[in-house]
Design brief:
Layout: H1 2-12, H2 36-50, H3 54-64, H4 73-80, H5 93-96, H6 99-104, H7 108-119, H8 126-143, H9 148-154, H10 165-169, H11 182-191, H12 195-203, H13 209-224, H14 228-235, H15 240-253, H16 255-264
Helix pairs in contact: 1-13, 1-14, 2-3, 2-15, 7-8, 8-13, 11-12, 11-13, 12-13, 15-16
């Protein structure tokens, strides 16, 4: 999903900087790059497109792109293991990669089942499971036409999303814990008036900028689409293999968007 990838790349420059500017420029900084968020998301995309084992696919794909960096220490251990198993993580890595499920699933029940399938291979802590479900559901609800207010209400059994980014920005502190980073990213996406606005709102929190922008970007893509200039710039960062994964996923699950991408990018 280009929304996730664009959010990851744009947010990468501001990781650990505590920069809380909304009007940062340029959007794609010369030091921007894709990180583990993009690699994990493209792993899920590949597995969904090819109907392959989530564990085997992610293990092989992430090991191949290990030099990308940004990996959590426990995920590195998971990658290094010959028999990778879930490790009780409550981190937001469960949510940053799960957006593609929201495009593939055909019902709420399907969203939950697929989300758990791609989450529990690493993140089997309740907070991480909730975060992944909320993110995938937000994508699903947005792409099926629900308003931002309706999505907040539909997610209320998982998170209370009754605040604005402006109301929490000043005191917000960086964390990778899903409970304290994923609801904020979802809020940025639902509060936003455009795709770019969603990324800027997520990044201006000054938190886990690449991951929160990736989560917000995935949801915002379902709400607004990804502007051609942003999509084109994000694609330019990808190598041939990642480009092929993205193209195959769009061709299979988002054919209208894929036709537009082929014509305009």
């Amino acid at each position: 999903m280009l929304g996730v990838i664009a959010g990851d790349i744009i947010g990468s420059k501001y990781e650990f900087t505590k920069d809380k500017r909304y009007h940062f420029e340029p959007l794609f900084h010369p030091k921007s790059k894709y990180t583990d968020d993009t690699i994990c998301t493209t792993s899920v995309m590949r597995s969904l497109s090819d109907n392959t084992c989530p564990v085997d696919t992610m293990h092989a794909h992430c090991r191949k792109y290990f030099s990308t960096g940004g990996w959590g220490q426990r995920f590195i251990q998971w990658m290094a293991s010959k028999n990778p198993a879930p490790y009780g993580s409550w981190g937001n890595g469960s949510a940053m990669r799960i957006g593609p499920v929201g495009w593939v699933a055909k019902s709420v029940e399907d969203v939950i089942a697929l989300t758990d399938k791609y989450t529990l291979i690493t993140h089997n802590h309740p907070e991480a499971i909730d975060a992944a479900r909320a993110t995938a559901l937000a994508v699903f609800y947005a792409r099926t036409g629900y308003s931002s207010d309706e999505i907040r209400e539909l997610l209320s059994d998982i998170y209370t999303l009754d605040y604005t980014i402006a109301s929490i920005q000043k005191d917000y502190q960086r964390t990778e814990r899903a409970l304290y980073s994923v609801p904020q990213a979802i809020t940025a996406a639902l509060e936003a008036k455009s795709f770019e606005d969603a990324l800027r709102l997520a990044i201006c929190l000054g938190g886990d900028t690449d991951t929160q922008a990736a989560i917000a970007g995935g949801i915002a893509e379902a709400r607004f689409g990804v502007p051609d200039d942003i999509a084109k710039q994000a694609m330019s960062y990808l190598d041939d293999e990642l480009t092929s994964i993205v193209s195959e996923f769009y061709a299979k699950y988002l054919p209208v968007q894929f036709k537009h991408l082929k014509t305009n990018l």
